[in-house]
Amino acid sequence: MKQKIIVATTNKHKVQEIHNIAEILKWDADLVPLSNYPDAPKVEETGKTYEENAKIKAVAIAQRYGVPALGEDSGMEVSALAKSPGLFSARFMDRAGKTCGCTSPACAQGAANRDIIRQLGGSETEDRSAKYLSVVCLAFPDGKIFCAKGECKGRITDKERGTEGFGFDPIFMPEEYDYEQTFGELGQRAKDSISHRRRAMEALVAKISKK
To answer: What residues make up the domain containing 151?
Structure first.
């Protein structure tokens, strides 16, 4: 019988990616979205690191429902912007959206993408290196917890390209594709094979399989 695990996020894009990656890895787990629990508590991300935030979410949900929970936190760090937006990627998006008067998450994310491009300037000769980071934590009701980290290095484009993926995907070109296509252009299957979230999940599954 598969182990039931609650995916402790309300971000439907992350939930879908985690499901996709679990299938690729052949992880024998019954992943249940948090949306199946309408009374789920709103968990504040008060940590100072990706791992702390992932742990906070996983532990809160595991303790609330008495079943294992998978928490994840991630962000994109741009070298020339002092690793911003980083841990505060969601807040960066919200702030950019408010500045532009956005009324939808899609509008706010587009504003955030364009703000990063604006801050870097239009020259391809400038340092446009960046990386996506993800930390996943699997918490059990008995207090056990396992965490793993993954990253994907790349560069920032000079304009948004592609409509696939979510978040900063239209402006992020992974090094595995020679910085020629963004995650927004490559599509979900390609992203799930090399992304920061894929690498974190792969490391986590390998870690718990040894226990």
So the answer is: 3-209
Q: Which two tokens stand for residue 193?
A: 């094979």
Written in H, E and C, the secondary structure of 55-100 is: HHHHHHHHHHHCCCEEEEEEEEEEHHHCCEEHHHHHHHHHHHHHHC
- Report the chain's C-alpha Rg in angstroms: 17
Q: Which position among 39, 73, 94, 142 bears the catalytic label? A: 73
Q: What is the CATH number of the domain that holds 202?
A: 3.90.950.10
For residue 96, the model assigns a pLDDT of 84
* Cβ atoms of 152 and 195 closer than 8 Å: yes
Domains contained in the chain, number: 1
Whether 73 sits among the annotated catalytic residues: the reply is: yes
* Strand bridging mode 29-33 / 84-85: unpaired
SS3 137: strand
Task: Report helix, strand or coil for 131.
Answer: strand
Helical H segments across 154-195, by residue range: 183-186, 188-194
- pTM confidence score: 0.93
pLDDT in tens, 65-92: 999 999 999 999 999 999 999 998 888 8
